[in-house]
Amino acid sequence: MAGLKPLKGMRDLLPQQQIRREYLFEKIKEVFRKHGFDPIETPAIEYWEVLSGKYGAEEKLIYRFQDRGGRDVGLRYDLTVPLARFFASNQGNITKPFKRYQIQPVWRAEKPQKGRFREFYQCDIDIVGSRNPLSDAQIIITIREALRELGIYGFQIKVNHRKFLSAIARHFGIQEREVEFARILDKLDKVGLEGIEKEYMEKGFPKEVIKGIMDILKNPPSLEEIVEIIDNQDSLSAYENLKRIFLYLKKTGVEEAVFDISLARGLDYYTGMVFEIVLTDVPIGSISGGGRYDNLIEIFTKYPVPAVGGSIGIDRLITAMEEMGLFREFPSTYTDALICYFNMDEKTFDYAMEIKGRLDFMNVDIYSGDAKMRGQLAYAAERGIRWAIIIGEDEISRRTVSIKDLKRRTQDEISIDELANYFRTSK
Amino acid sequence: MAGLKPLKGMRDLLPQQQIRREYLFEKIKEVFRKHGFDPIETPAIEYWEVLSGKYGAEEKLIYRFQDRGGRDVGLRYDLTVPLARFFASNQGNITKPFKRYQIQPVWRAEKPQKGRFREFYQCDIDIVGSRNPLSDAQIIITIREALRELGIYGFQIKVNHRKFLSAIARHFGIQEREVEFARILDKLDKVGLEGIEKEYMEKGFPKEVIKGIMDILKNPPSLEEIVEIIDNQDSLSAYENLKRIFLYLKKTGVEEAVFDISLARGLDYYTGMVFEIVLTDVPIGSISGGGRYDNLIEIFTKYPVPAVGGSIGIDRLITAMEEMGLFREFPSTYTDALICYFNMDEKTFDYAMEIKGRLDFMNVDIYSGDAKMRGQLAYAAERGIRWAIIIGEDEISRRTVSIKDLKRRTQDEISIDELANYFRTSK
Known about the structure:
In chain A, β3 and β4 (72-75) form a beta hairpin. Chain A has 16 helices and 16 strands. Chain A is an alpha+beta fold. Chain A folds into 2 domains: 9-323, Bira Bifunctional Protein, Domain 2 (BirA Bifunctional Protein, domain 2); 337-426, Rossmann fold. The mean pLDDT of chain A is 94. Helices cover 41% and strands 21% of the residues of chain A. In chain A, strands 1-5-6-11-10-9-7-8 form an 8-stranded mixed β-sheet. A 5-stranded mixed β-sheet of chain A has the order 13-12-14-15-16, with helices on both faces. The two termini of chain A are 45 Å apart. At the A-B interface, α1, β1, β2, α3 and β5 of A face α1, β1, β2, α3 and β5 of B.
C-alpha cells in the first residue's frame, strides 16, 4: 500500500539520522557566520519563468505543476537560481557584496539510486556583487574550514578556471563548441580518459583537436605551464586571476588546493574560477563544489552582477563521516537521562520535578507511557538514553535516587543533594 | 514581470528576518530537547492518499499535482498527518512513547492576507503511543517553557476536553451533529456570542438547545461545575482526565492554564484534551495550540495508537515579539566586525589574517568587494556591523589597528596585542 511509505525517491529521517544532520548544520552555520555570511531563505515554489532556461538539459528534472491559481510553477531545483531571483527582488534592501548562506531542501526528479534522493538539502554560501578574487578565495576558505571543523582532513580541493577551457577551445579553433567540450570533459572522473576521447570522437570533434586535448590531459600542466602551452588572452586573464586566488589560499594555510586543468563542473553558468572538493580517504567522490558565475544574475536584474559561490553536499558528507567512523560515539537521542518510577502519584511527581530542576543543565525526560519499571528501563535502553534515574518509595523517603548507567552497566544509590555533581563529573 | 518576485503568497526572508527566526528555532529546540523530544523530518511531498480525507473542508487548500512518474501527490499541509504516516512507515524502528519534534515548512493555498503566507514553518512536538495524562501535560509544559525562554510571559493557556463537547451534545440530544456544533463553537473568538448564536439558528439547531448552549457559554462553568450541569459518562471521564492534567500543570508552576468550556479547536481529529495559547498583551490571537488525537494514526497502522501534540506558530510569535519590543536590540547581521583596508596587498592580507586569528571567538569578515575605505565603512554601517577594524600602512608598521565603533561613534587606535582583550570587554 503506497500510503504507508514515503513517496518514491523520498525518505523519512529518524531521530538518529536527524540528530547527525542537526549537528552538521549547526557546525557549518557557525563557520559560515565566522566568515561574515548571513542567512536568508527563499520559497520552495517559484514561478516557472524563474527556473526555466537556467539548467540546460536538467530542466526536465524540475517538479513542475500549476498552483491553485493556475500559475505555472516549479519546486526549487537548487539554491543558486533562487538566490539570483532573490537578489533582483530585494535589491533595495541588499548591500553589496552580499554574503549569504542558505540551507534548504531542493527537489529533483532523478532516477532513484543508492544514496540519491529526490529531496535533499543544499548548504550554500555565495558572495554577490564582487569581482575581487578575495571573494573567490573566501568561498573556498570558508568551506574548507567547515569540513575541518567536522573532523574531515583527508581531501583535495581541485581548482580550475573556466576561461582556461575557453582558452583551450579557442586554441584548437572549437570556440563555438566550448560548452559541449566542457560538458564532456566534466565526465573525466566517471568514464576516464578513454571514455571522454570516445565521446569527443562520437560527437565529431576533429581528430587533431582530440589528440591535442588528450596530450594536455595526459600530462596535466601546472598553473605556470598552461600559459605557455595555450598562449592567448583568455589564458592570461585566467592565469592572473587564479594566481591571486591561490596566493590567498596559500597564505590561509589551505594546503589542499591544487590546480587541475581537467576540472570543468557540469553547470553552464560558470564563468571564472571553479572548484570541487574530493575526499581522499573514502571513495565517495565530490562533497563540495562551486565557482564564479558573473552572467546569471543579470538575467533577472538586466545589468551585470558578478557572483561566486559554493555548496556542501550534506548527504554525501554524512555518508562519508559514517564510513570514517566520525559518528561512532554519536548519540541516537538528545535525552541524557530518563526518570523512571513505580507509581506516578503526587509525591513521585513532585520528586521527579525536583530532580529535573536540579539537573537543568541536562536533557532529562520523565517517562510518559504506561509501562512498568522493566518496560521503562527497556525503553531507555532502546532510545539510547544513557542513564535511568529510578525513584520508588524508598528513594523518596531516603531523599536519594537509584541511577542505572546503561552504558557502563553500573547502579548507584546517591543522595539527591549530590545528584548534580554526579552528572557533572560523569558526563 | 512575475519572474522578479517571489510567487504570489510566498516571501523571501532577508538576513535580518532569518536571524530572528534562527534564534527562535535554536531556543525552542533547546527546550524541546530538555524535555526528552528528539527530531525527525519527513518529505515535503506525500502520496495524495496520505493527505486526502484528513483535513475536512480544508483539503482544497492542499497543493496537489502529479509528479514526474504520474503519481498523485501533494505538498505537506501540516506536520501531524505526516507524523502519523511516518509512525506507520517506521514502526519497527520506533520505541513508544515516541517523543518527536519537527520543524519544517508547510504549504497551504490560502487567500493571501496581511501576515498570512502560503508557505510557513510549523514547529511541533508530539508524544505517540501513550494515553497517560502526563504526556498531555508534558506537551503544554514544554511549549510554555519555550515561550518563557523567549521572554514571553503574558499569555493564557486555555484548556478544554473534546469529550465535554460530546457530553454537551449528548445532553442536548444533538450527538449526531457534534462535529458541526464544535466547528461553530470554534468561531466564538472571531464572531462573538451573538455570531455563533446566529449561525446555530441558521443551521437549524433547535431553539431550546441553542438557549441551553448560550446559558452555559454566558456563565462559563469551572471544571468542577461542568460535571454538575452536564451529568453523563463523557462528562465524567473528561473531568477525571483534565483534573489529572491540571494537577501536573499546577505542580509545575503553569499558572497560565485555565479551563475554558468554549475552546473547540477547528480540526476534526481531536479526541481528548485540547489547548490554545493566547497572548494577553498583544492582540495577535493564538500562537500555539494542540490536543489529543487518539484515532488519527490508526488510519495508517490499522490498530489504535493514541497520541497528543502541540504546535507553535513561529510567524505570529515573531510578529508578537516584534510588537513587544523583544527584538529591539537584535542584530541584523551575525558579523561582529569588518576588517577594512586601503589596499589589499600581501602584507595587508597577512595582517588581516593575523587579526582574524586573534579574534577567533568573534565573527569577523574581511571586506571582499572593490570599494575604497569610505565605501567599506558605509558597507559596514548598512549591514549593521558594529565595528570596523581599519588597517593601513601606518597601523601595520606600528602593529596596531584603528577601531571604529559604529554604534557609539568612537574611534581608537590600539595595539594588536590588546585586540582580543578590547573586544572581550566591550562585547
